[in-house]
Design goal:
The chain has a 6-stranded mixed sheet with strand order 1-6-15-14-11-12, with helices on one face. Strands 7-8-9-10-13 form a 5-stranded antiparallel sheet, covered by helices on one side. A 4-stranded antiparallel sheet has the order 2-3-5-4, covered by helices on one side. A hairpin with a 2-residue loop joins strand 7 and strand 8. With 726 residues, the chain is an alpha+beta fold. Helix content is 55%, strand content 14%. InterPro entries: Bact_Sigma-Reg, PPM-type-like_dom_sf, PPM-type_phosphatase-like_dom, SpoIIE_N. It comes from [Clostridium] ammoniilyticum.
């Protein structure tokens, strides 16, 4: 399971603004109908979004190249667009999703004024609009400068931009342009696939024809040979190049073939490709003879975590328990009544010792006095009414403290009873060992449904993905899809896909079925925190455990280090209990009891716990006293409210949870209450923009907007996005 976590400060890299500067100069020579605006305008939008440094580099290059080429048309258009953007931004009318339309619409009157006909204007405007949307895909790469934001779509856009830079050199030298264009496309196909690169090749072919219509043969010589990779695309470098070279034997049938020219523009890219370093990540597999040692290391790791948990629990109870001392309350009565009494020496300090009046204070604190006691007090005490009033008041305090200490002792006993749950750890070890007989259990389960199973083999591809190979007598495809697969999915609690089903030879007499289990989704996560004091009182924890991945947020009471200490303890104990095999319900009860005893109700923490099970694509959300969380799905926002008191506040906690199926592009947002009461309105207002952002962009955007309206409190925002693994 994958989890991408980014929480780093952004640093300025000057190499990218320099690249923008030189790219602007190069693209100014890629002209269609004597204008380079279809390529310069998208780069202008990229520079505008990336920051002032990039915009300055772009404008400097534009002004310089326009002065050299005496191109007033381009510089007037760019300045007009720049003023339009700042005017719309000043009037708060600028919207990200409309900026490409606005910019291209402004081009129409300029083209009309410069005597372009309707067809020319339409082609140029549509091409500019397409390039604007294409180039906007690379903006996150420039802003974040992090490989984790790189996906297939953005990589394709980057390839188009680089190839367009190559095409810009056509007016200077067509031969070398085609050489480097081929070389770069070959690398792209080799490391991606022909399916992902062919749309790029077709688009580049259109650009080549628009820039230089005489390059028809060069375009065909580019498209036709690379189309052969649809039939086979080997990952072996030499075989890959061999197929590419052989594919050119068809060219003389389609174009006027200049053998010397095409030999040069084909063989040089091949040579460059062959000498290029190969970037391949090879998985390191453990040697079979060390598997047993690895398993022992896992057991040792479990034991270490178990010891760490006991140590942490012991530290919590190092603080001395409060005891109720009778002498303290006797002293209170003495201070109230007897301290200034003229007879105190007779009652407390005579040679015979403490008088009966002094002893009756001790008796009256512990229980109600009898009639003889009242008579004695009225006969011998100088202030009998004050004596009895003080005695009655402090008796209430004594009984109240006895009750509190009794409850404290009761909770303490409950905690030690909770330790019996630790026996589940050994059950967890037993389950790990028992997994070796997993195939046998599946086989017996199928036989219980009266399937005649000849053999069953589980082939593990890695920890999360595997294949099931099953041989069953007398079964058809309908029975496999409607009965066998649902039975196995229900038993394994995992999704299965049918790979193949085929009849074996008649003498064998069974059907061979191949099933596979692969994780459909992965998670991307980003987070940001703000501390009102030197230390943020919120704590965040993420960790994976078998098929689960947990994301937890805890908000300690108050701010600063004390709140942080409590929230961190909550998450540390939570993770240790779960990692040692304790069931989730038992873990939460133990955690609540621990904090209740430790803090005696004076300190508590909230808990947001998101339990992702990527094996069956489900999510369980548990909230105790936490601020509301949000799910953005299918252009709607669902609010996940809390249904319980915070952890450590009450003796028992009612466990209420959300259980849901996760879907691709789900966006989940966890927050502490420091984001303020306007956060939901903020989500609704910018929902469309948020759905188009990456998790890194979302968390930065929401943090900035929330900070403008935030209350005086610590603030934490976590954004999780569900992404298809493919």
């Amino acid at each position: 399971m994958d989890l991408v976590i980014v929480n780093k400060q952004k640093h300025v890299h000057y190499i990218l603004p320099i690249i923008i500067f030189f790219s602007t100069i190069i693209l100014s020579y890629a002209k269609i109908q004597e204008t380079a605006l279809p390529f310069l305008l998208p780069l202008f939008i990229v520079s505008f979004y990336s920051g002032y440094l990039y915009l300055i580099c772009f404008l400097t290059a534009i002004i310089g190249i326009s002065i050299i080429n005496q191109d007033t048309f381009t510089i007037v258009v760019i300045i007009t667009l720049l003023l339009t953007i700042y005017l719309l931004n000043f009037t708060h009318l600028l919207r990200t999703k409309y900026i490409s339309f606005i910019m291209t619409a402004i081009l129409i009157p300029f083209f009309y004024a410069n005597h372009y006909n309707i067809l020319q204007t339409t082609v140029l405007v549509m091409l500019t609009l397409f390039n604007c949307y294409l180039d906007q895909e690379i903006i996150p790469l420039i802003i974040h400068q992090n490989k984790n934001v790189l996906n297939i779509k953005r990589l394709q856009a980057l390839i188009v931009v680089v190839c367009t830079l190559f095409i810009s050199f056509i007016p200077f030298n067509t031969t070398y342009t085609m050489i480097f264009l081929r070389y770069f496309l070959l690398i792209s196909i080799y490391y991606l696939s022909i399916e992902k690169v062919m749309p790029i090749i077709l688009y580049l072919s259109i650009l080549l024809m628009l820039i230089a219509p005489s390059l028809k043969d060069d375009v065909l010589s580019l498209i036709l040979p690379m189309s052969f990779f649809f039939m086979i695309q080997p990952k072996n470098k030499y075989l890959f190049m061999s197929i590419f070279l052989l594919s050119h034997i068809t060219l003389p049938f389609f174009i006027n073939y200049n053998y010397f020219y095409y030999a040069f523009v084909i063989l040089v890219p091949v040579f460059l490709f062959m000498i290029s370093p190969q970037f391949k990540n090879k998985k390191i597999k453990i040697n079979p003879e060390f598997i047993e040692i690895s398993y022992q290391e896992q057991l040792k790791s479990k034991a270490d975590a178990f010891a760490s948990l006991f140590h942490q629990l012991t530290e919590v109870f190092k603080e001395e328990n409060q005891e109720t001392h009778l002498s303290e309350y006797v002293g209170y009565v003495y201070e109230d009544v007897c301290h200034h009494c003229s007879s105190k020496k007779y009652c407390f300090y005579s040679q015979e010792g403490m008088s009966r009046l002094g002893k009756l204070i001790s008796k009256g604190i512990q229980k109600d006095l009898e009639v003889d006691d009242y008579n004695y007090i009225y006969q011998h005490c100088l202030k009998p009414d004050d004596y009895l009033k003080s005695l009655k008041n402090h008796q209430k305090g004594y009984f109240k403290m006895l009750k509190v200490n009794h409850a404290h002792d009761h909770l303490k006993k409950d905690l030690f009873q909770e330790f019996s749950i630790m026996g589940h750890v050994f059950q967890n070890f037993s389950k790990k060992i028992d997994e070796q007989d997993n195939e046998k259990k599946i086989l017996e389960h199928l036989k219980a449904y009266h399937f005649e199973v000849y053999y069953l083999k589980k082939i593990k591809k890695d920890y999360e993905n595997y294949m099931l190979e099953i041989g069953i007598e007398d079964i058809d495809e309908k029975t496999v899809t409607e009965e066998l697969i649902p039975i196995l999915e229900n038993y394994l609690n995992e999704s299965l896909d049918l790979v193949s089903i085929k009849k074996q030879h008649l003498q064998i007499g069974y059907t061979s079925i191949l099933l596979k289990h692969e994780l459909k989704y992965t998670l991307q996560l980003a987070k940001k925190q703000y501390a009102l004091d030197q230390q943020c009182g919120d704590s965040i924890l993420t960790f994976g455990l078998d098929e689960h991945h947990y994301v937890a947020l805890s908000d300690g009471m108050g701010q600063g280090y004390i709140a942080y200490k409590e929230s961190k303890l909550t998450l540390d104990v939570l993770s240790q209990l779960l990692k040692n095999g304790i069931q989730l319900r038992d873990t939460l009860n133990t955690l609540n009891t621990l904090l209740k005893i430790k803090n005696q109700g004076d300190m508590y923490t909230t808990l947001d716990l998101f339990d992702f099970n990527l094996m069956n694509s489900r999510l369980k959300v548990i909230k105790y006293g936490a601020y509301e969380s949000y799910l953005i799905r299918n252009h709607q926002i669902d609010v996940l409210h809390s249904h319980s008191l915070p952890v450590g506040m009450a003796s028992t906690m009612k466990m209420v949870s959300y259980d849901m199926k996760i879907k691709e592009n789900d966006i989940l947002i966890l927050t502490s209450d420091g984001v303020g009461e306007h956060f939901f309105d903020l989500l609704k207002k910018y929902q469309e923009e948020i759905e188009k952002m990456s998790v890194y962009e979302i968390v930065s955007f929401l943090f900035q907007k929330s900070f403008q309206k935030k209350d005086l409190d610590d603030m934490s925002i976590i954004v999780i996005k569900v992404v298809n693994r493919n």
